[in-house]
Amino acid sequence: MSKQSLIGTCIGGRYRIGDLLGQGGMSHVYLAEDLKLKGKKWAVKECLPLEADDMTLFLEEAEMLARLQHPQLPQLVDYFTTEDGKGFLVMDYIQGPTLQDLFEEKGRELPVAKIVHMAFQLCDLLHYLHTFQPRPIIYRDLKPSNVMLNEQNQVRLIDFGVARHFKHGKQSDTMQMGTIGFAAPEQFLGLQTDARTDLFTLGSMLYYLLSGGQYAYITQKPLEQIRPDLPEALTSTVRLLLQEHPQNRCQSAMEVKMRLRSIYSESAAAPEALNLHTPYTTSTTDKLIVIGGLFAGVGATFMAITLARILHSMHIPNALVEQPTIEPDLYMLLYGDSKAPKDYQFASNQISGRTSATISSWTNGFTTWVPLHPEGFQSSWHPADSFKLLHTIKKPIVIWDISTHWEDPSVQEICHSADEIIVVVDASPGKCNRPSSRVHFNRFDTYQQRGKKVHYVANGTMPGHFRNEWVDSLPEEPLCTLPEIPRTEVMRAVWKGECIQDQTEVLEKLKDSLNPLLREILPADTIRKSSLKGSKSLFSRFKKHS
């Protein structure tokens, strides 16, 4: 049955075919009227005559779409095949222009903030697909004509005809499909496609939209040469997405989103602010800071609490999260049995349990504590869970304590998205030369090559001529050194049930020692304002000495 003769006919016993909405090499999409639900309109996708293998692919797409439950993805309501070997998908009809339509209508020039706002939404959608259970879904055909916009500037993905489930261990795809100009190299080389394939297509689409409709594979020019007015962090993110080899790209949709959030807030790029052309800046930009030790017992959690309380003293809202795969320590150090809110619910348990209850909050001044249950985390923790937890916290600065679990997949995922990585070492060249330490150093070097900031902080000093040997065992000299706190002061704080970092003189000592690190991770004006806020008047100093 040709598309001309299909129009006006009834298929599936209830769908009267109307106008042709669009067509591709393997399918046509029609507007159809539901004869059973009077007045209801559907989009009906006709897949051209199916061979045995094609029928399997069709049924896979239908079953995959049927399981998707997301307001910005097409909702499948029915599917069936006909005697002449055609398959039909019945989906909700989405009214509105495609992104390609809008792009052409505006003379191939859209506000940068609007493009970034769409990128935020696409990152969320890709994250949903890539973390879909029981198997991730790879979209594989992201392009402006497959993105629709409603009146609220909400993006919706359409056409899942090229999408597939990701299968671990599979070396190549059975079909290499995608749109030339946007598809990743592996789609045309017979190689396995995965989440990073979708990230390449996202980078291709951003390049296309930001360059006035040019294709990266044709121009072979960095985006900054075409648009020198764009923020460097934006052009470098696009450049990273377009790397030929998947291992050199951003590794997750959330990493892309975190990179974009470092220069544009989601609120600054929201629909009501779409006329903005300038990056979002505040005195304190959103930051995700990962803190871990090179080896056990080096003081990573002490460093994390210290940084949280320094930020508190500077009136900067922050949260300290204990990585759910590590041995719990934070609740005990914070004297949770007496200090935690009554009936406190541990956030990691709520996230992993998929409960709909509001996440409990344990706040102390400007710091929100997110500890593990003292008996440990009993469920499995996935990378997607980390981003769900991160999304619920909503603090400008989040400190993520990973202890020594650098090799954990969820830790590596959060490191890919981190703005700063702080590695705590102690003054022991022997430990730094361990094989496990060298493996960690190589991992940190990889993060640095991908544009991540890695800072080394020493806990304790190496005396005399041994210092040079110790420094030589490290990739670079530590940025600063945590001072020794007399054991008597620590024990006194323990007996009082207090954090030693909340003692004013101790905190000032710690803050002075970590000042080089603070200058690296905080904007200069934030540090300057904090110094003014913390300065004492002549009268208060006179009173103290009196």
Automatic annotation (TrEMBL):
Residues 15-264 form the Protein kinase domain. It holds the Pfam family Pkinase. The chain crosses the membrane at residues 288-308. This is non-specific serine/threonine protein kinase. The keyword Ligase does not apply. One of its GO terms (molecular function) is kinase activity. The lineage of its organism: Bacteria, Bacillati, Bacillota, Bacilli, Bacillales. It comes from Paenibacillus germinis. It catalyses: L-threonyl-[protein] + ATP = O-phospho-L-threonyl-[protein] + ADP + H(+); L-seryl-[protein] + ATP = O-phospho-L-seryl-[protein] + ADP + H(+).
